[in-house]
Structures are given as structure tokens and as C-alpha cells.
Amino acid sequence: MTGSFSREQLSLYFIAGTQDTSRDFFQVLTEALEGGVTMFQLREKGEKSVQSEEERLHLALKAKEVCSRFKVPFIVNDDAELAVKSGADGLHVGQEDLRASEARKIIGSSAVLGVSAYTIEEAAEAVEAGADYVGVGPMYATFSKQDAKAVVGPERITQMRESGINIPIVAIGGIQPEHTKAILQSGADGISVISAIASSQSPRKAAADFRSQLI
Ligand code: TZP
Ligand code: MG
């Protein structure tokens, strides 16, 4: 795994799995990358996702290949073994997944490690465990995560910054292009998006709309 990672790469972080797209998954991914996505996370989750280990590896290898054409980091959600096997650039874990410190041991020091943090305490723990960035949300109401917690809004990011969390932060949950400015003003380095890009009729245009708000 490679480990070059910068705050700018979090600007427009697209997250998706096959369950999030009604059209061909790789077509959607390619168009999103053409529109200006700066990082991608493969998040196969739920009943409609690909279940077999072999198929997941195939999917990850292909997604990694597509991302590498655009020089965009490829991150795997939850599954450290899949991240290693596919040669992903990094791994993202939630609070209910593998512990961040364990994840770091498995993926090594040069891979990118992202951790979901709902509270200031969780963010501080993630920093301690060696996270490269934290994902904070839900910012707004979301339909893409069944067990999503109550909305926290951009204020939570401001609180984290005020309490001294200084690693890169990416906001998540219900984000539309018009939310971008408020989120960046709260202290985030970028936004992560599932449905506003994955369910769009034109993922390219959706990604470009976000990009135009990020300047
Ligand atoms: N974690 C917190 S909210 C969320 C995740 C994975 C879902 C974000 O999806 P969307 O469609 O951008 O609201
Ligand atoms: Mg998870």
C-alpha cells in the first residue's frame, strides 16, 4: 500500500458500493472521477451488496485500477484483509469495526487510516491510535446508512477543532453541494458523499457541482 496523503485529497471524497448504484457500478465510479472526485472508498454493505470474498476482491481490484487511472487514492471500508489483499491505499473503520490501533498494525504505517468519529472523545482516541483523518457525521439527515446516529451538523466539527483535534477532518451524511461552504467554514478539510453522486443521473455533473463549491 502506498501512503502519500494530503488534506486536499479529502476535498471531495466519494464513497460507494454496488448497493448504492442502480447503473453499472464502474460506469458511475468512472464518471464521478471524471467530474473531479479526489478520493474513493469502496463500501460494500448490506443485503444488496456483493457477499462472496472472491467477488469482493475482484471488485476492489477493479475499483483500485480505475482510481489509479485518475491518480485518486483507493480506500476500503471496514475490511482490513480486503484492503491488504487488494493493495488499497488505505482503510476506513467505524467505531463498531476493528479497533483503529489494530487496523493500523494490519495495514502498516504507510497506508492511509480513516476512522469515523461521532464525539470529540472518539476523535481524540482516533488521533491517539494513529488515524490519518477522521470522518465526522451525520451532518444532515441521511438515507444511506441504516443505523445512522442523530444529526450533529457542522457545529460538531467546530467543537472538535476548538478542542484541539488538528488532523484532517472530512464531513459525512446527507451532504448536497449547497452545504459545502458551511462545512468548510466549520473547519473541515472536505466532504464525503454517497447518494448525491451515486444516485445522480449524471455522477460527472454531480461531482463537478461539488467541485465548483470547493474553490
Ligand atoms: N456515515 C455517516 S452518514 C453516512 C455514513 C456512511 C452515509 C452518507 O451517505 P449520504 O448518501 O451522502 O447521506
Ligand atoms: Mg464500518
TrEMBL record:
It catalyses: 2-(2-carboxy-4-methylthiazol-5-yl)ethyl phosphate + 4-amino-2-methyl-5-(diphosphooxymethyl)pyrimidine + 2 H(+) = thiamine phosphate + CO2 + diphosphate; 4-methyl-5-(2-phosphooxyethyl)-thiazole + 4-amino-2-methyl-5-(diphosphooxymethyl)pyrimidine + H(+) = thiamine phosphate + diphosphate; 2-[(2R,5Z)-2-carboxy-4-methylthiazol-5(2H)-ylidene]ethyl phosphate + 4-amino-2-methyl-5-(diphosphooxymethyl)pyrimidine + 2 H(+) = thiamine phosphate + CO2 + diphosphate. 4-amino-2-methyl-5-(diphosphooxymethyl)pyrimidine binds at residues 41-45, 77, 116, 145. Mg(2+) binds at residues 78, 97. Residues 12-197 form the Thiamine phosphate synthase/TenI domain. Pathway: Cofactor biosynthesis; thiamine diphosphate biosynthesis; thiamine phosphate from 4-amino-2-methyl-5-diphosphomethylpyrimidine and 4-methyl-5-(2-phosphoethyl)-thiazole: step 1/1. 2-[(2R,5Z)-2-carboxy-4-methylthiazol-5(2H)-ylidene]ethyl phosphate binds at residues 142-144, 174, 194-195. The keyword Transferase applies. GO terms for cellular component: cytoplasm. One of its GO terms (biological process) is thiamine diphosphate biosynthetic process. Its cofactor is Mg(2+). Keywords: Magnesium, Metal-binding, Thiamine biosynthesis, Transferase. InterPro entries: Aldolase_TIM (IPR013785), ThiamineP_synth_sf (IPR036206), ThiamineP_synth_TenI (IPR022998), TMP_synthase (IPR034291). Binds 1 Mg(2+) ion per subunit. One of its GO terms (molecular function) is thiamine-phosphate diphosphorylase activity. Its EC number is 2.5.1.3. Signal peptide: none annotated. Belongs to the thiamine-phosphate synthase family. Condenses 4-methyl-5-(beta-hydroxyethyl)thiazole monophosphate (THZ-P) and 2-methyl-4-amino-5-hydroxymethyl pyrimidine pyrophosphate (HMP-PP) to form thiamine monophosphate (TMP). PANTHER family: THIAMINE-PHOSPHATE PYROPHOSPHORYLASE, THIAMINE-PHOSPHATE SYNTHASE. This is Thiamine-phosphate synthase. The gene is thiE.
